[in-house]
């Protein structure tokens, strides 16, 4: 690529915005040239706006420190400086919907980490290895918005990454009933232990809205485009509990599955380790070479040992075994702020570029 695409980060001072900035520091295709945030940050350099709230383990990139933060509400001015934007704004759901569509209507593609548009019928919600064909619904969305280049695309909730890819790999065995409990890291709430000291040595058995997302979003990912919208699948039926645990990064899932066509354990493992998708075939920059790894040890996957597998973009699975009530059970692990948030959105943008939906203005 001769010239990198110019990228804006909406909500660039928050935790997910920071993750976008750190991930894109040396990206071969994309370069962060513009950062927009709330009016209180606007006019300050990025370094000044973030202050002591930088939460990444690596320092603020030198190329970013002196960028003057723009007002995210000045849509036309921000959009004029970029080829596309990543959205990580912290607003109400209605405000997010409105501002993301406003950017799209300036002919600026929006790749969102937010949940606001996940159920807008003509907005694709994509895990690139699973449903890259859903990006085609963008053509219908453009007609609704009256755009030629502008659109909104989203990535799904972080909580489903540790089991939805696994169930997809097992599709031919027809899973029809799933029980999942997710044990979710505090960074999923945009927190560190410094921000949230009461989470040390603690578990909270409730995360607002998370269980519905965990049960319903996989069905939309497995759905089909019909009459210009995405119609969710009806199976498998998923019931979920979501628990906040004292872990910084990494969502673990304990999952029970019933199949219509009962496989062997060996068949399940074989399907996992050979599962790949378009990102692997195209060798997209952020794609893991091996999407899912299977770990034979009884005490794996573990957050400390496995959460950074494939730079946090891969899925780790272990403890596949037969169950006395369900057919099989397993444990999955994914990195919630990499594969589950900013990294997943970057991979979506790479897919969109490869499909021709994101181009230089």
From TrEMBL:
Source organism superkingdom: Bacteria
The EC code for this enzyme is: 1.2.1.11
Query: Which residues act catalytically here?
Result: 158, 251
Q: Name one GO molecular function term.
A: NADP binding
Which Pfam families did the record assign? Semialdhyde_dh, Semialdhyde_dhC
Q: Where is the signal peptide?
A: none
InterPro entries the record matches: ASADH-related (IPR051823), Asp_semi-ald_DH_pep-lack (IPR005676), NAD(P)-bd_dom_sf (IPR036291), Semialdehyde_DH_NAD-bd (IPR000534), Semialdhyde_DH_dimer_dom (IPR012280)
Domain Semialdehyde dehydrogenase NAD-binding: where? 6-138
| GO biological process annotation, one example | methionine biosynthetic process
Gene3D superfamilies from the xrefs?
Answer: Dihydrodipicolinate Reductase, domain 2, NAD(P)-binding Rossmann-like Domain
Going by the UniProt record, its keywords in alphabetical order are: NADP, Oxidoreductase
NCBIfam families reported for this sequence: asd_EA, PRK08664.1
What family is it from? Belongs to the aspartate-semialdehyde dehydrogenase family.
Q: What is this protein called?
A: Aspartate-semialdehyde dehydrogenase
Organism of provenance: Anaerosacchariphilus polymeriproducens
């Amino acid at each position: 690529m001769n010239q990198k695409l110019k990228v804006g980060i909406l909500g660039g001072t928050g935790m997910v915005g920071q993750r976008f900035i750190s991930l894109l520091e040396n990206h071969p295709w994309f370069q962060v040239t513009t950062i927009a945030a709330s009016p209180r940050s606007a006019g300050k350099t990025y370094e000044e706006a973030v202050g002591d709230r930088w939460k990444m383990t690596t320092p603020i990139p030198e190329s970013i420190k002196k960028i003057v933060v723009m007002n995210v509400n000045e849509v036309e001015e921000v959009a004029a400086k970029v080829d596309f934007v990543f959205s990580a704004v912290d607003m109400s759901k209605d405000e997010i919907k409105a501002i993301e569509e406003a950017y799209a209507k300036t002919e600026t593609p929006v790749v969102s980490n937010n949940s606001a548009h996940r159920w807008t019928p003509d907005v694709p919600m994509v895990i690139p290895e699973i449903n890259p064909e859903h990006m085609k619904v963008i053509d219908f969305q453009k007609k609704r918005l009256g755009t030629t280049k502008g659109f909104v695309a989203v990535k799904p909730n972080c909580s489903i990454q540790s089991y939805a890819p696994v169930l997809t790999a097992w599709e031919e065995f027809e899973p029809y009933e799933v029980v999942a409990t997710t044990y979710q890291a505090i960074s999923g709430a945009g927190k560190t232990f410094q921000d949230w000291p009461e989470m040390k040595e603690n578990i909270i058995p409730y995360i607002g809205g998370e269980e519905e997302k965990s049960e319903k979003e996989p069905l939309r990912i497995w759905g089909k485009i019909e009459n210009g919208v995405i119609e969710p699948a009806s199976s498998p039926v998923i019931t979920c509990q979501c628990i906040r645990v004292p872990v910084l990064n990494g969502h673990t899932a304990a999952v029970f599955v019933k199949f219509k066509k009962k496989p062997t354990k060996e068949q399940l493992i074989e399907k996992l380790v050979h599962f790949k998708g378009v990102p692997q075939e195209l060798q997209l920059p952020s794609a893991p070479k091996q999407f899912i790894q299977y770990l034979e040890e009884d005490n794996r996957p573990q957050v400390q040992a496995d959460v950074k597998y494939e730079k946090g973009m891969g899925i780790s699975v272990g403890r596949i075994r037969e169950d006395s009530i369900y057919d099989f059970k397993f444990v999955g692990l994914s990195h919630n702020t990499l594969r589950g948030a900013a990294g997943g959105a970057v991979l979506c943008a790479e897919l969109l570029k490869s499909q021709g939906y994101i181009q230089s203005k």
